[in-house]
Design a protein that fits this description.
This protein is mostly loops. It has no helix or strand. The structure holds zinc ion (ZN).
Length: about 60
């Protein structure tokens, strides 16, 4: 069985700052952002506010 590999050429090179071609705002990061993702960064670089589980501290 032959599997045609998906060729990732230099598509990532062309990074149009358009509605459907946004990438992470972190310099060097080319992670595509979902169109529905209103954030400026990808999941890795998003300024994440660690949600505190109030009232349920297991390990402290
Ligand atoms: Zn990123």
């Amino acid at each position: 069985m032959r599997v045609q590999g998906e060729r990732f050429t230099s598509i990532e090179r062309n990074l149009p700052r358009s509605a459907d071609g946004r990438v992470c705002g972190e310099p060097g990061c080319t992670t595509r952002l979902s169109v529905y993702n209103e954030q400026e960064f990808c999941a890795l670089h998003a300024p994440m506010v660690v949600p505190r589980m109030r009232g349920k501290v297991l390990d402290d």
